[in-house]
């Protein structure tokens, strides 16, 4: 997952609360920035912005004007969480601190949003598909089992043509909401719009748990009260496996293989008019990705309907 540490400005310009307003203004102008973390004894004690300094006596102390309650993030905070903090608090920047409350970086709304929309789909407000590999690798590296659910809307192209692209977009947005309502962040459920009319979830759930979740989600889409004349449904493919520790293991390749398995299973589900098809359990890390030794002849061969 992309984290704040990947895009933050490190070693930001800071100021002491004992400094005067005139010095804060000069620091902001010279560095072309709109705010300064206020630090005392290496600890964050506040923040002051150019808005705080408008029409203020330049001889006043920064400590008298600073905002003492500062919204902060840790370097491992994911982008989506930082974006929510900015929006909820209507602020333009976040101070990045470590576990000792020491300032190690700063992230502005402009920088965050420029990066954020590279990985998020503007229509559904869900992460894009490429984020799945990063999230899945994190789950594997923590030693958990990992499962992928791949959803494909049925006959969406026909619906799009009959009802128009606006209605098509509305359907995609509503499907995103329905699926999102079923996920559980504490289970590491990570929902994304994979591409077009395809959605996917990667999770630390066991394979059997993922199958049940897939069934619930397919049912929620089918039973939603869509407008008269619209029959919206989806097919799902599920793949899962347990990690094996290996010196040559490539978590990203394992996740890509699981995504491919789940995608192929969803294609079969649609073709056979089954709500959910499950790929046989894959022992993650069992294939030799180093180029030495033999890989399974066909890891995508067998599926079962649920």
Overall pLDDT metric = 86
Total discrete domains: 2
Task: Tell me the name of the CATH homologous superfamily of the largest domain.
Answer: Reverse transcriptase/Diguanylate cyclase domain
Reported for the largest beta sheet, the result is:
6 strands, mixed
Q: What is Rg?
A: 24 Å
Strand arrangement within the widest β-sheet reads: 10-11-9-12-13-14
Note the total helix count: 9
Question: How does this structure look, described?
Answer:
It is a single chain. By secondary structure, the chain is an alpha+beta fold. It has 2 domains: 114 residues, CBS-domain (Roll); 184 residues, Alpha-Beta Plaits (2-Layer Sandwich), CATH 3.30.70. It is built from 9 helices and 14 strands. A 6-stranded mixed beta sheet has the order 10-11-9-12-13-14. A hairpin with a 4-residue loop joins strand 7 and strand 8.
């Amino acid at each position: 997952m992309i984290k704040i540490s990947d895009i933050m400005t490190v070693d930001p310009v800071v100021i002491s609360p004992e400094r005067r307003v005139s010095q804060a203004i000069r620091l902001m102008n010279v560095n072309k920035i709109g705010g300064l973390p206020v630090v005392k004894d290496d600890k964050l004690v506040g923040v002051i912005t150019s808005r705080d300094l408008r029409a203020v006596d330049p001889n006043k102390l920064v400590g008298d004007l600073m905002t003492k309650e500062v919204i902060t993030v840790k370097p491992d905070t994911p982008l989506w969480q930082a974006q929510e903090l900015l929006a909820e608090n209507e602020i333009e920047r976040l101070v990045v601190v470590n576990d000792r409350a020491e300032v190690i970086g700063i992230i502005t709304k402009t920088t965050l949003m420029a990066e954020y929309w590279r990985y998020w789909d503007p229509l559904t407000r869900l992460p894009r598909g490429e984020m799945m590999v990063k999230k899945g690798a994190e789950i594997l590296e923590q030693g958990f089992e990992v499962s992928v659910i791949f959803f494909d809307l049925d006959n969406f192209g026909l619906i799009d043509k009959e009802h128009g692209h606006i209605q098509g977009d509305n359907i995609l947005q509503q499907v995103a909401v329905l699926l999102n309502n079923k996920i559980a962040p504490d289970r590491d459920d990570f929902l994304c719009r994979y591409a077009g009319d395809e959605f996917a979830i990667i999770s630390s759930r066991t394979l059997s748990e993922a199958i049940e979740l897939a069934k619930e989600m397919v049912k929620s889409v089918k039973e939603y009260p869509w407008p008269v004349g619209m029959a919206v449904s989806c097919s799902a493919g599920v793949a899962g496996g347990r990690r094996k520790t290996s010196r040559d293991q490539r978590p990203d390749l394992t996740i890509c293989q699981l995504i491919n398995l789940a995608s192929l299973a969803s294609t079969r589900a649609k073709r056979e008019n089954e709500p959910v098809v499950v790929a046989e359990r894959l022992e993650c890390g069992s294939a030799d990705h180093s180029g030495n030794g033999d890989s399974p002849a066909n890891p995508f061969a067998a599926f079962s309907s649920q």
